[in-house]
């Protein structure tokens, strides 16, 4: 009788041990699976962020040289100096080599003319960039024409009076504008750039401006997406109009700044080759 009890007790102990063993194997297996999934997610996120950063970075001198060999010997890159014209060169083409060709051609032109233009390349996409275009501040028509001719392309030249760079406060501004009407003066051209990285922000600002009669000629991305607050860039001659736009979105005078550029060259998909330096 005692032997049966011992035998039965031994079997119960072994069964209990096997159950605990299976339980720990299940726990360890689930933990290992979760760790592998977490590592895969982190690797994908790292790869995505790295690709995004590389896409937004401006091209280095070596990149431009590789994309399109210079057509003529050039001088050193232009430096900031009194009397220079500040020109942004924007990539809006689906073919990187076209952007490299255009940038190299403009740098050659700049060197041949004594470094008159301070070229500042950046890569963010601009909506509707199929056609190469030169935008300019009032008073820089002649310089815009020179750069357009240097690219030997059919490039319509459009004046930009005010630039709006919308930041991460854009949702609040939209609600503010929906409750107001601030009619636009005549013959004012505005560009709206997304500087906060919120998808569709520039288009929403554009809709509110056009509802009040403003002519929006450019909608695209700012050179960076780190703008916390929305700002307006306008020359002194357009400050009154800039203040009207600021009031439409509930902004004060402190959000109005001097313009950041004189010319903006948008290289589109219609650009084909780097022309010879005159």
Task: Give the structure's gist in a few sentences.
The chain is an alpha/beta fold and 278 residues long.
Question: Any chance you could write out the topology, listing elements then pairs?
Answer:
Elements: H1 2-56, H2 61-67, E1 85-91, H3 96-112, E2 117-122, E3 133-136, H4 141-150, E4 157-159, E5 162-166, H5 170-178, E6 189-194, H6 201-211, E7 215-221, E8 231-233, H7 239-248, E9 256-257, E10 263-267
Parallel strand pairs: 1-2, 1-10, 3-4, 5-6, 6-7, 8-9
Antiparallel strand pairs: 3-10, 5-8
Helix pairs in contact: 2-3, 5-6
What keywords describe this structure?
278 residues, 5-stranded mixed beta sheet, 7 helices, 17% strand
Query: Numbering strands along the chain, what is their spatial order in the largest sheet?
Result: 2-1-10-3-4
Q: Please provide the ordered H/E string of secondary-structure elements.
A: HHEHEEHEEHEHEEHEE
- DSSP strand content: 15-25%
- Biggest beta sheet attributes: 5 strands, mixed
Q: What does this protein look like?
A:
The protein has 278 residues and is of the alpha/beta class. It has two domains: 1-56; 60-278, no CATH class. The chain contains seven helices and ten strands. The protein has helices at 2-56, 61-67, 96-112, 141-150, 170-178, 201-211, 239-248, and strands at residues 85-91, 117-122, 133-136, 157-159, 162-166, 189-194, 215-221, 231-233, 256-257, 263-267. The strands form two sheets. The chain has a five-stranded mixed sheet with strand order 2-1-10-3-4, covered by helices on one side. Helix 7 links the parallel strand 8 and strand 9 (256-257). Helix 2 (61-67) packs across helix 3 and helix 5 (170-178) runs parallel beside helix 6. The chain is elongated and about 100 Å long. The N and C termini lie far apart (113 Å). The model is unreliable at 52-82 (pLDDT under 50).
């Amino acid at each position: 009788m005692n032997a049966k009890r011992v035998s039965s007790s031994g079997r119960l102990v072994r069964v209990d041990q096997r159950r605990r063993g299976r339980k720990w194997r299940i726990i360890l297996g689930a933990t290992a699976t979760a760790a592998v999934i977490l590592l895969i997610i982190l690797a994908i996120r790292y790869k995505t962020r790295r690709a995004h950063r590389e896409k937004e970075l401006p091209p280095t001198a070596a990149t431009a040289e590789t994309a399109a060999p210079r057509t003529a010997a050039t001088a050193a890159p232009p430096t900031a100096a009194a009397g220079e014209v500040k020109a942004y060169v924007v990539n809006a083409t689906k073919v990187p080599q076209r952007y490299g060709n255009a940038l190299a051609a403009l740098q050659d032109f700049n060197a041949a003319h004594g470094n008159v233009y301070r070229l500042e390349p950046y890569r963010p996409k601009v909506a509707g960039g199929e056609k190469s275009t030169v935008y300019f501040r009032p008073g820089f028509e002649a310089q815009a024409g020179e750069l357009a001719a240097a690219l030997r392309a059919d490039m319509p030249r459009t004046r930009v009076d005010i630039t709006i760079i919308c930041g991460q406060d854009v949702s609040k501004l939209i609600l503010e504008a929906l409750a107001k009407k601030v009619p636009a003066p005549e013959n004012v051209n505005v560009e709206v750039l997304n500087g906060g990285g919120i998808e569709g922000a520039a288009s929403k600002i554009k809709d509110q401006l056009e509802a009040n009669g403003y002519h929006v000629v450019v909608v695209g991305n700012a050179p960076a997406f780190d703008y916390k607050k929305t700002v307006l860039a306008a020359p002194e001659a357009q400050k009154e109009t800039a203040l009207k736009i600021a009031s439409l979105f509930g902004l004060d005078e402190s959000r109005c700044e001097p313009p950041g550029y004189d010319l903006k060259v948008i290289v589109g998909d219609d650009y084909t080759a780097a022309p010879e330096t005159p």
